[in-house]
Design brief:
The protein has about 400 residues and is an alpha/beta fold. The protein folds into two domains: about 5-215 and about 335-390, Crotonobetainyl-coa:carnitine coa-transferase, domain 1 (Rossmann fold); about 245 and about 255-325, formyl-coa transferase, domain 3 (2-Layer Sandwich), CATH 3.30.1540. The protein contains 18 helices and 13 strands. The chain has helices at about 25-35, 60-65, 80-90, 105-110, 115-120, 145-150, 155, 175-195, 210-215, 220-225, 260-270, 275, 285-290, 290-305, 310-315, 330-335, 335-340, 385-390; strands spanning about 15-20, 40-45, 55, 60, 70-75, 95-100, 125-130, 205, 245, 255, 320-325, 345-350, 350-355. The strands form four sheets. The protein has a six-stranded parallel β-sheet, sandwiched between helices. Strands 9-10-11 form a three-stranded antiparallel β-sheet, with helices on one face. A hairpin with a 2-residue loop joins strand 3 and strand 4 (about 60). The longest helix has 23 residues, at about 175-195. The model is unreliable at about 1-5 (pLDDT under 50). GO terms for molecular function: transferase activity. This is CoA transferase. Keywords: Transferase. It holds the Pfam family CoA_transf_3.
């Protein structure tokens, strides 16, 4: 974690205030901070409740080491006069503020966009909520799972014809992360537009449901034109074949994507099914989609005879896209992850040496590990610096 590399980061000088908790807004600001923005995270006096989630070491959140990295932490009671005064002062010097409270909460406590932009007309206010700032559902509570459910994703994760078990979630809070990514893009775009077009800030409205819904590819258009409703495909996908996840002799799973005509031919040659390679029914992707179960059966019959790693090596030798299903240990130890510096070893004053997922951005002049200037701090660790050095308040 080399502080001198910060000047090479593209968002150096961008000032962001985070009024976030749990996942969506803090994920947005983590991306901005990784790219060099100054992020001041405002937490309640007891700290972001997210600090209580997941594993702990010596009373400190392991997850928060990543969640709060590269941010300054201050503690304020937003309902107190002092808290509101300080937040207003922080926003007065900021380019953007990111929040994910229930719609209307900031207005009720006197910190709504109109109030903050009255002090700083150029302020970009990014608001992330479950359903958005308007509409009949705006006041309903929501967490990430609700975004997956209503946005259409969870319907697709079931196995076809399986009704005794609920469709699984993907294992992370994907709708919060998506909303955070969209918010980060919107913040940077709004700041760019403000600086080019007269200096006026904007209010950005992002939500979990629409973030997931935006990923539904051509499904809405298909429904509008043909009345189609795409049904669960399990590990497959309706629009390409063969692409699925296949069992191997060692109990592992192998994901294979033989989507294009040329790759399909190489795949069938490798598994010894030249009959399917040359079958005119399989000459196009549309034809293969119509006969996907037959293809999946043939591929699975081959993968079941080999350990996953051996099957992967053979297919990669034939230039067929494939991968074993990695768990986090696989990720941490994989030579490609290491060569790309995707797994960063960093020193956390609260936890010791820890592994962080490196920022996914690659740019010349700065390495991904160098983007991690510091790990998540204790709640309020930067009160003195922010209130007295940055805001210039006199010390008692």
């Amino acid at each position: 974690m080399r502080r001198e590399s910060r000047s090479l980061l593209p968002l150096e000088g961008l000032k962001v205030v985070e009024l976030g908790h749990y996942i969506a807004a803090p994920f947005c600001t983590r991306l901005l901070a990784d790219l060099g923005a100054e992020v001041i995270k405002v937490e309640p006096p007891g700290g972001d409740p997210f600090r209580g989630w997941g594993a702990q070491k010596d009373g400190h959140s392991v997850w928060f080491s990543v969640h709060g990295r590269n941010k300054l932490s201050v503690t304020l009671d937003l309902k107190s006069e002092e808290g509101k005064r300080r937040v207003t002062a922080l926003c007065a010097r900021a380019d953007a503020v990111v929040e994910n409270f229930r719609p209307g909460y900031l207005e009720r406590i006197g910190l709504g966009p109109a109030t903050l932009q009255a002090e700083n007309p150029g302020l970009v206010v990014a608001r992330i909520s479950g359903y958005g700032q308007d509409g009949p559902y705006r006041d309903k509570p929501a967490f990430g799972a609700i975004g997956e459910a209503m946005g259409g994703l969870r319907h697709l994760t079931a196995n076809p014809g399986q009704h005794e078990y609920p469709p699984p979630r993907c294992g992370v809070s994907i709708s919060d992360d998506l909303a955070g990514m969209y918010a980060a893009l919107a913040v940077v775009s709004a700041c760019w537009g403000r600086d080019r077009g007269g200096g006026k800030g904007r209010v950005l409205d992002l939500d979990l449901v629409s973030s997931v819904f935006s990923l539904m590819e051509g499904m809405l258009t298909e429904h509008g034109l043909f009345g189609w409703v795409r049904q669960p495909q399990g590990a497959a996908i309706a629009t390409a074949a063969p692409t699925n996840t296949y069992p191997c002799a060692d109990g592992r799973w192998l994901c294979i994507a033989g989507n294009s005509d040329l790759i399909y031919a190489r795949l069938m040659t490798m598994i010894g099914r030249s009959d399917l390679r040359d079958d005119p029914r399989m000459a196009t992707n549309g034809g293969r989609c119509a006969h996907a179960p037959e293809l999946d059966e043939a591929i699975a019959a081959w993968t079941r005879t080999l350990p996953a790693a051996e099957a992967q090596d053979l297919l990669e030798g034939a230039e067929v896209p494939c991968s074993r299903l990695y768990d986090i240990k696989d990720c941490a130890e994989d030579p490609h992850f290491q060569a790309r510096h995707l797994v960063a070893r960093v020193q956390d004053p609260l936890l010791g040496e820890v592994l962080h997922p490196a920022p996914p951005f690659r740019m010349d002049g700065v390495g991904p590990e160098e983007m991690i200037r510091w790990t998540g701090r204790e709640a309020g660790a930067d009160n003195d610096r922010v209130f007295h050095e940055i805001l210039g308040e006199p010390r008692a």
